[in-house]
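Lab manual, section 2.4: Encoding a predicted structure.

Procedure: take the sequence of the chain (433 residues), apply the prediction step described in section 2.3, and record the output as structure tokens. A sample record is shown.
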Amino acid sequence: MCPFLFKVNIQLILLCLVFIAVNTFLYKIDSAKSMNAVKRKSLGTIYFPVSVLILSLFFWDKPISFFIAVSVLTFADPIASIVGSKSRNHFYPWKDKKSVEGSIAMFSVSFLLVALGTDTMARLFNANFYLPFHILIGLALFTSICASLSEMLSHNGSDNLTIPLITFFSYEIFLINYTHGNLTHLLLWAILSIGIFSIARQLQSVSFSGALGGFLIGILIFGSGGWLLISPLVFFFISSSLLSAIKDKPSSKRDVLQILANGGVPTFFALSYFFFKDQIFLLGFFGALSASTADTWATEIGFLSKKRPYLIFTANQVDKGASGSVSILGTFGSIMGALFIGLISYYTLEIDHSIALIAFAGCIGSLTDSILGRFLQGKFYCTKSNVVVEERFQYDVENTLISGFKWIDNNLVNFTANLTGSFVIILINLLYG
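Recorded output:
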């Protein structure tokens, strides 16, 4: 209720910061166990004030959307948990156990909150126009589906962060696309996206969690920029899947963390452009996607080389696919992947030399991935298989760290490389644009 009680957001911002600090301290010293443990240790009490902090910092001028987003977490999530705890029909969309009944409860309560909350708030504030009934129902369906999917993918209390944010963004995306006359395209993409990820799931390109995460990322990006922004993302996904299918070594199915590692940064910049309409966010979007494509193409095409790759900055040969390895064929693939994203961006960006800039940023991002993979990414010794691996845990046992940092894995390296691609092109534009 804070956006309706206060004229400025400083009170809520300070309150969130206090809660984040106090709850983090209590979590670290393992105190207040009844607050942090729900059959397992949970970071939910930290994630919740973080989500409210983000909403209050950047979207204070959207009180109804703010209210709807926090209400879904406040009421729908705990009701889903109560219903789910009494169910015997469980499944694992990712890491945490969920229930069919709990997911249905999450969807149903979210639907009612969005539909009734939107109509009530519109009447309470004497809105200039009211949503037609079928649009209101569509808004409730769209938002509650996205909120329910974000709850399915939660782990370790992360739903306290994702549910308010996903609810807010999906709610705003539907409304703004409706007012701009783009709603038909958004719904068409939603249907098309279901088909794309269903096929990818059958082809084992993605896991169930990866399909759900990819669907949500696609909705957010398409809702933010339509076909112009979703086209390079679709190109990246399809081209990467095809390249993965033709290489000699079978690839693992991408889970939601791998999807976020490659799609999280582009989604951030797409949403930033959607709400703040600055072209610099478009540059960040294409820079991240170029880096992701360059790195993925380097790996997949590099596997086709007959020679073993070299560890970057050395003459030591390593196995194909090893983090920090480079090859001539892989480098060629990296350049081509970044160049293709640059070509696609030409029709969206209105700046000189955009193709070269995007390609350059992508190559720098891919190079960063190799450097981080060699020097910082954790390498572990598996005592059961007697080989060096990149996974911290195998066979439910923690492996022995032999180099790098145990908390830096391939997903974090990919995420950082994508962020580097964004920063490189933004920096070039600020200095010479």
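Check your result against the sample. Residues 1-179 form one domain.
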